[in-house]
Write a structure and sequence with these properties.
about 15% strand, 9 helices, globular, single chain, binds zinc ion, disordered C terminus
């Protein structure tokens, strides 16, 4: 009798365990197929550029912002040129909302390229990681249900006028994307070897750790880059990089590490982005 009970228990144990194993296998399969190339351990063979269709024109307007909010006392012309007031920023976001624009992050844009990028796609990018991005821009983005991509100079985190770690984490919690804008904001056309490597790799390592993410978006300081910098980005697992080259809305998949943007000036009405049924009244 005891033997029979033991046999019965063994049979039950065998089937229960087999089911658990097959569920575990299925989960593993799903995890592996979700992002096979960019899992942290498998960047060696395929690269971001390899995955994209060659020579395809992508239509997306990538807007470049710096400061949002009021000007400090005694602001010079450079600061003024980099600052969009809250009122103007709000009206720009309202225009995108009213116009039915598809506002996505840079990494989301990259992910949509192999299938299709929706019509009227806009990416909002913010360079340098200024404190007003958290205090002024974020509430307006939230008001319209939009999310942005914020490029952080990692050595500047928590210094005067720049976001601290909690503010950066809070952006992520609210669905925004964080990308690298190097460690020291050096023009990458003038540095080589280990100095260049550090700017690209150390900033990613810092953000990966801080945000428990795989940082895939990059922004060149002052838009300056070199072939060596692009090769480093690819080697270190970045998928896409933006410049300050001007474009209102197209780039080629061949230039995924050299994506142009539209610089939003303080008085811009984004008049190049049409709103159906509403003609822009102010010329830019
Ligand atoms: Zn910058």
């Amino acid at each position: 009798m005891l033997v029979l009970i033991l046999i019965a228990l063994s049979i039950v144990w065998f089937f229960t365990n087999r089911e658990a194993n097959s569920i575990a296998d299925a989960n593993l399969l799903i995890n592996e197929t979700q992002d096979p190339v960019f899992s942290p351990t498998s960047t060696a063979t395929l690269t971001a550029a390899d995955l994209l269709p060659k020579g395809q024109e992508i239509k997306a307007s990538i807007l470049m912002y710096h400061h949002i909010g009021p000007l400090p006392q005694g602001a010079d012309d450079i600061r003024k040129g980099l600052t969009v007031s809250k009122t103007t920023f709000d009206s720009q976001m309202k225009k995108l909302k009213d116009g039915g624009y598809n506002v996505i992050t840079l990494n989301e844009l990259y992910s949509k390229i192999p299938t299709s990028v929706p019509e009227k796609t806009v990416v909002l990018t913010f360079d340098d990681g200024y404190e007003d991005n958290a205090s002024e821009a974020l509430p307006i983005l939230q008001k319209y249900g939009f999310r942005g991509t914020f490029f952080i100079i990692t050595s500047k985190v928590a210094s005067a006028d720049y976001m601290n770690e909690d503010q950066i984490k809070d952006l992520v919690k609210n669905g925004n994307e964080i990308g690298s804008h190097t460690v020291y904001h050096i023009g990458l056309d003038t540095v080589k070897g280990p100095t260049l490597d550090n700017e690209i790799k150390d900033s990613k390592t810092y953000l990966d750790k801080l945000l428990n993410q795989n940082t895939t978006s990059f922004c060149y300081p002052a838009g300056k880059f070199s072939d060596e910098a692009k090769a480093d980005l690819l080697k270190d697992g970045y998928r896409i990089a933006v410049t300050t080259e001007a474009s209102k809305g197209t780039f080629s998949t061949d230039n995924i590490y050299q994506v142009p943007r539209y610089r939003v000036n303080p008085g811009s009405t984004l008049s190049f982005l049409p709103v159906v049924g509403v003609e822009p009244t102010t010329k830019q």
